[in-house]
Amino acid sequence: MNASTRTPEGWPGKCPTCGHELWIEPSLPSRDATCPRCGSLVWLSQSVPEPETTTKPITVKELYETAAVYVNRPEFRRWQDNPEEPRDWSGAAAFFGIVKGDRIDPAERVGEVRNAVKNAMDWCKAQEVAFLTKGSGQGGTPIHIRDLAEMLDFLQSLALRFPNHLDKSI
């Protein structure tokens, strides 16, 4: 038996693994289906999804790679061990990848990091998983959802500690 790739009477959805937009008839009551493109499990909602208004990573691999850049930074890991870190702006700037003379707006960078982390957390919650990975067989160290939540706390602490640099992000 072949699965139909298009069922107009089905429910709308988007595969979190490959990003494929689909209309498919899910299994009830669980509302799950298999992506016809990559075979991943997709959880569907009966409501039509809102159109995306911002550009954000659409695959789990992109979510992972974006979040891993910041979760693995030494400034964040030091803060997890000692919430007094970083003590000066140079440490915070290093976390954001800002060097002297850059024309990068630190407040905008905070927003980018916050959005990336929230998107990763939303994916984990939607998939009912505790870890974010690159995807099946893609390698990489899994990122625990706790680390993602702590990243949001870290960003808030930086905004409070360095308001002269990050006042737009509070």
Return Rg in Å. Answer: 19 Å
Report the biggest beta sheet as strand number plus sense, adding barrel if it closes. Answer: 2 strands, antiparallel
- Mean pLDDT reading: 81
Taken together, the total number of domains comes to: 2
Which strand order spans the largest sheet, edge to edge or round the barrel? 1-2
The geometry reads as elongated
Poorly predicted tracts of residues = 4-8, 48-52
How far apart the termini lie comes to: 54 Å
Report the strand count: 6
Q: In terms of structural class, how would the helical and strand content be classed?
A: alpha+beta
Could you explain the architecture of this structure?
By secondary structure, this protein is an alpha+beta fold. It has 2 domains: 1-51, no CATH class; 60-169. The chain has helices at residues 60-71, 74-81, 89-96, 106-127, 145-161, 163-166, and strands at residues 11-14, 21-24, 32-34, 41-43, 131-132, 143-144. Strand 1 and strand 2 (21-24) form a beta hairpin. Helix 1 packs across helix 4 and helix 4 runs antiparallel to helix 5. The chain is elongated and about 55 Å long. It starts with 10 loop residues before the first strand and ends with a helix. Residues 4-8 and 48-52 have low confidence and may be disordered.
